[in-house]
């Protein structure tokens, strides 16, 4: 069997060997034939090709486990003039996040400060090509994705285009108290308010809802059949409602907790400014093992048309529809009880906003 | 393969004395040579692969199928070569601005720890605004279009863009200043610190309750697995999370234990909800008419814009606003230099064209709403990458070693007028991806505070490690460890403009990268 040497390790090994300053870690010994025979054909980099819907794709996969803490002043993608009916705001870019950070710092402003890194596994770079009507094969898009990712993602999200699906969950009593607070009700006057009374009847039942990027004021996720872009809000989509596993209460919830196009559900706000979500947790907070707790299918892409990118989180060969411009995908994986959301926030966080976790050591919360 | 006929490579010795064009050294001058390093430049050269061929094999797809890459063309030529069509002569460095390779310490590498020497590779250094990569790259992002092309003759377009950005930042600052003018920023911070004590306490309570919920969930899972299909003859096993109909009086102990765990789980959920509610209330504590959440948001935003306030009425002399003002000065300087007729030293044109022969899986809709994988065939894809006006001025790599292994710090300063990625042989840029005004300012490691450690692990994998910022060094770290920037003035894919793209002010505060063989 012929021995193989992967290029990058070889270069580094040679570099180490040639530099007089490089400390010797072990004595070099020739490898026996039996050892050489154990060398497999595995590689740091693999490439995959696929076709779908008239598109050809080439993906370059990098085998790597990456732990990092990073702070970025500004991330702005797709910064160009855009004024389509489905453009949900007048923000200047498809994706615009200030003070973007991956990872967090616990006990940030003390000598016990410790970094809790963001974990990334197997990043990849992919190109999409399409042959146009004149028979010319064109570049259609490019995306950067991650096999798995887990950790705190922070930022001042001014604008997002793409998919950001989360789950908000909490007790109906939480919603009731918030409703009473917002409407200056007490336990007595609550009984004369339909929404408040309905929430009272729900008691401590757990209620939950999927939240996604929506148009402020309506909760629309589409306009004229086209997905919105440059969203500034996230929330319960127009027509969707809170749900519960309480069989008796579930039929009632759509009546009392639906967003009917005014960004409220049961009198509660159902659409929230993305700026209020200063930190979200990507992946399963309770599962430290990246294989189990890491969110799959996360990517950023740039394309000139509605390129369907393969959903690497889906076991059933799904493709994710994107639109021309910059696109970020933080989608749930699976359906129903098996759905795993990129982030889960308590109802309190949904109603009050999620505070930023420290991402700097010292008294700076951000901007370091 | 051809190499330019007048190609020449010159090596300059005795770098410390290099201050003018090349002249012969006399014996006395030669005696002063320290042997500290070499300088070199390449003049009047070009490279063209011509009809030679090269193939890379051994790369595989995720299923282990092999693929090959046939390099059909590669070239390095001078700027203006029309993507290699013309044999324009290239220049890498000049006698006054050479590449250097030398051992450095002290003032030559001020970030190195005292007493440490490093092997340094440094690309040509220019300080004028058009050839210093940082200054020109910064201006090019704000300019957006490629200067000199049709419709891009006014270099002050960049100033308009940065003025607009600065105006937005100052508006945000003024709004926060006005909001807390009567309070004072030191008082604001004092109030935040007091109120955050309650938040910290309640965060800890939420963490405890979250852990309790996880524990209760685990118990419920275990007991559900052990619970019978039918309890007490009449009660079928419920869905997970629901209880047997016999409730608390089940005779079957496993069913009773499971029912009990459901109650316990619900209790823990209620306690978690109560803890979350208490935490939310802590964030909603008001002072001076604003919730703690709002005050923290405003204070953090102001600090990001202007630096940490040191007075009730703070100044704004550091932070993003000052940084943007500094950048504005640079942008104006570059624009003025261009307006006065200044030109850049020409860069390189670099290109590669290849054919990828790779296995490709055909996915299609099966007509029932499912997408299915079909046959695997071999695709033969043409792929090209061309860089125009490519420069590397001001980049360096310092390498040294200690007991940790090979260590280093690197600064990549790269600019290119265009990066063109194509998938067609006979086509135009309207069919390709074209990134104009491409600027990479990538800084990895800082010798004293965050040395980059490169190593090969025992299993043969590579490791790249940057130690994290610490409590002990955080102030110096944030002042001295350089940030990175990547920007594109305009990206056009297949004739569609997608505008500028930027990752600005990125600092890696901690990195631990280990390569892994694929497939896992």
Describe the structure.
The complex is a heterodimer of chains A (368) and B (520). With 368 residues, chain A is mainly β. Chain A has two domains: 7-36, no CATH class; 62-118 and 143-368, no CATH class. Chain A has eight helices and 24 strands. In chain A, strands 1, 2, 3, 4, 7, 8, 9, 19, 20 and 23 form a ten-stranded mixed β-sheet that branches. In chain A, strands 10, 11, 14, 15, 18 and 24 form a six-stranded mixed β-sheet that branches. Chain A has a two-stranded antiparallel ribbon with strand order 5-6. Helix content of chain A is 15%, strand content 39%. Chain A has helices spanning 7-18, 33-36, 172-182, 187-190, 194-202, 253-256, 290-293, 347-352; strands at 45-52, 55-62, 64-79, 93-102, 104-106, 114-116, 118-131, 137-159, 162-164, 166-171, 206-214, 222-223, 226-227, 233-235, 243-244, 264-265, 268-269, 271-273, 279-282, 298-303, 308-310, 319-321, 325-330, 343-346. With 520 residues, chain B is an alpha+beta fold. Chain B folds into two domains: 2-146 and 346-514, no CATH class; 182-312. In chain B, the strands form three sheets. Chain B has a six-stranded antiparallel β-barrel with strand order 17-18-21-23-20-19. In chain B, strands 10-11 form a two-stranded antiparallel sheet. At the A-B interface, helix 1, strand 1, strand 2, strand 3 and strand 4 of A face strand 5, helix 4, helix 5, helix 6 and strand 14 of B.
Any chance you could write out the topology, listing elements then pairs?
The complex is a heterodimer of chains A (368) and B (520).
Chain A: H1 7-18, H2 33-36, E1 45-52, E2 55-62, E3 64-79, E4 93-102, E5 104-106, E6 114-116, E7 118-131, E8 137-159, E9 162-164, E10 166-171, H3 172-182, H4 187-190, H5 194-202, E11 206-214, E12 222-223, E13 226-227, E14 233-235, E15 243-244, H6 253-256, E16 264-265, E17 268-269, E18 271-273, E19 279-282, H7 290-293, E20 298-303, E21 308-310, E22 319-321, E23 325-330, E24 343-346, H8 347-352
Parallel strand pairs in A: 9-23, 10-24
Antiparallel strand pairs in A: 1-2, 2-7, 3-4, 3-7, 4-8, 5-6, 7-8, 8-19, 8-20, 10-11, 11-14, 11-15, 12-13, 14-18, 16-17, 20-23, 21-22
Chain B: E1 2-3, E2 8-13, H1 27-31, E3 37-45, E4 47-48, E5 54-60, E6 66-78, E7 90-92, E8 99-104, E9 118-122, H2 133-143, H3 157-179, H4 185-226, E10 230-231, E11 235-236, H5 253-283, E12 286-287, E13 290-291, H6 292-306, H7 319-339, E14 348-365, E15 371-390, E16 396-402, E17 405-422, E18 433-444, E19 452-456, E20 462-466, H8 474-480, E21 484-493, E22 496-497, E23 500-515
Antiparallel strand pairs in B: 1-4, 2-3, 3-7, 3-8, 4-6, 5-6, 6-14, 8-9, 9-16, 10-11, 12-13, 14-15, 15-17, 16-17, 17-18, 17-19, 18-21, 19-20, 20-23, 21-22, 21-23
